[in-house]
Structure formats: C-alpha cells, structure tokens
Amino acid sequence: MEPRIVTKPAFEAVGMRYYGKNEKGEISELWEIFMKETAALGMDESTFEECYGLMGPMDKEGNFEYIACVPAKHFEKIPENMVKKEIPQSRYLVFTHTGSLETLHDTFDFIYNKYLPNSEYEVKWNAYHFEFYDERFNDFKEDSELDIFVPVK
C-alpha cells in the first residue's frame, strides 16, 4: 500500500467528540449518535458529501481524542453537544483502506508500525490525523473505501 502525497487546504469541521482508547467500539457508537443528531437537525447522510474522523494525539496511557464530524458549512450555529475544529492547511500522506471495519485496525497498524518507521517522512504528531469518508465509502462493505490522512513535515 503506497500512499499519495497531497496538500489539503485548511478546513473547518463540526462534530461530536470522544476521548479514550476505543476499547469497546466507542467510536462506532459515536458515529451512530452523531448521525442521529444530525438527522434530528434535518440533515441525513445524503446531505454530506464528505465526513471526517479527526484523531488527536495519543497520551502516554493510549487515550486519544476522536471527533466524528462533517464540514462546518452545514451548520449555521454549533449545537451544544458538538465541537468545531479548524484544521490548518498541511501536507499529508494519504493511505486508502478498502473493505471492512474489522480490517481497519490492520491498515492503521501497517501505516503507523510498518510504513512510517521505515519511511523518509517526519510525521506531525501534534496535528490532527484523520479518516476521510466520501462517495467511495459504502458502510464498510467489501468494496468500501476511505482515506487516512497522516500530516507530515
């Protein structure tokens, strides 16, 4: 799996936040709650041409911030149970995951434990890394694709 290199312009996103280790599938649950909340605001999945799973830096205990979100343009005001994040323009390595949720961990393992330690790239660990979902995403079915953006210097 060879990544491509892109420079992504700055963007703003609004979503729901989780902090922890995702030991019990809390991130999947967060997405379900987030989609129900946006539906209650009159938006359904067809409203969003793209979604993001923002991942903040991991602490020494293995906890990290994760925000299930969509572009901020969909919101006139931010609901009380949501947060807004501004992601600056950055250069990224972009890896594509194809297939199931069960194999997503394998893709992350490859990226962070096999590819990056042996690459020439210096990762920005203090910046948001993120999953990018667009029309290629098909609910983690066999043909489903999503991109993983890793910020690099």
Automatic annotation (TrEMBL):
<dbReference type="InterPro" id="IPR011256">
    <property type="entry name" value="Reg_factor_effector_dom_sf"/>
</dbReference>
<dbReference type="InterPro" id="IPR010499">
    <property type="entry name" value="AraC_E-bd"/>
</dbReference>
<dbReference type="InterPro" id="IPR029442">
    <property type="entry name" value="GyrI-like"/>
</dbReference>
<dbReference type="Pfam" id="PF06445">
    <property type="entry name" value="GyrI-like"/>
</dbReference>
<protein>
    <recommendedName>
        <fullName>AraC effector-binding domain-containing protein</fullName>
    </recommendedName>
</protein>
<feature type="domain" description="AraC effector-binding">
    <location>
        <begin position="1"/>
        <end position="153"/>
    </location>
</feature>
<dbReference type="InterPro" id="IPR053182">
    <property type="entry name" value="YobU-like_regulator"/>
</dbReference>
